[in-house]
Amino acid sequence: MGRSAKHNLTEGPIFGRLVSIAAPLTGGMLMGMIYNLTDMFWLGRLGSGAAAAVAAVGAVGLLMWMSMAFQSFGRMGSEIGVSQNLGRGDEEQAKNFAQTAFTLNLILGILYGLVMIFGRRYLIGFFNIPDAEVIRYAENYLMITGFAMPFFYLGGAGMGIYSGSGNTRTPFYIQAVGISLNMILSPILIFPAGLGVEGAAIATVIAQSIAVSIFIWHIKCHKNRPFKELKLFGIANKKTLKQILKWVTPIAIESFFFTFLTMLISRFVAQFGTEAMATQRIGSQIESLSWLIGAGFASAVSAFTGQNFGAGKWSRIREGYRLSAIIMGVWGVIVTAILFFAGGLLFGVFMPDEPEVIAMGANYMRILAAAQILGCIEGITSGAFRGLGKTVPPSIVSITCNTVRMFAAFFLAQTAMGLDGIWWALTIGAMMRGAWILIWLRLYSRKLPKEDALVPDRV
Length: 459
Fold this sequence. Notes:
This protein is mainly alpha-helical. It is 80% helix and 0% strand.
């Protein structure tokens, strides 16, 4: 049982193939945003403790983001390995990457979950939060969600396998099940059950475990599974593991530093009070309208580029990137307008009884609006590099620019700009990343072959 023609990205109309894989991926990213915003929406209605609850979940959210650094080994390793080898027509090697990535992520998910459960006091202590209520909420939420980590990691590896094979619809449908369960369970456990923040965490664990169980069943049993007789849990292939580590280590370091530096910035924000912390958390979720969809489209570009790299079809790679840049450029303009003109309105949805947070949020959104177009272009450009197996350039750009914005946030926060100085540092850093990676790809593309080849060159 091999790959169907509609999942073969090396043939057919380029625009149609891109949209067919990008639409479910971006839809999945939007659902991921809804997953997070569901808790924000309901916790923002807890009354007098709403700001503390949102701030607590926000702190844990950063630690969840940090987990993505390690989850990327299975997700990106399978996505790149599966796509390139299917493009070459080597299904057996593609299966090796899928199995190795799945086993690796199971181990990493268990380890990260244990760190969250037993190290919660030290992890939350890093934020130097002055409010004891926020600390208590955060530690409890972190401990419970630690049990969901193996499921999050296995889900990430599964998504990489399907994306690399050109099938992004199945992960979308499975994510929809998880999101729906979370949206149903979260308000029930928060309010009628009286569990508050802990109820939101329990809903996440239940929803994620059920979604991943469906994932595993589909990969093993469904007639449209990517591979026949794929053994998910087994001994990792050493050669394949070495290649995954080579590809993904720069990505993991990039993701880790991004989150770590964001956590440092959150310490600066905490100095301005609980309302400022809640503003940052909600604002980052609203802003993810651009960067999460950009990440979804980046995965599509990565899979498309990977398969065509394996097949040596350089003209399709170039045209695929050009069309993706147009699409994401238009989306960046739309998000810019939303953030600039409707930021306060969006904040009001989540914190209706907190006028101070709404005012802070409206200003935050207006500042961040300036970086949205370049942020969207950054995502697909990084995806193109990764599809080519060149994972170092995006990592260098991200780590360097995020370090600059961390120092900028520290110094600008001490000036008369205060909290706005932190928001401007975030914006300037994002603009730098987008501009630099775009220039790098244009220069690098000059080294690529101009004509298609039967056997791809190793650039």
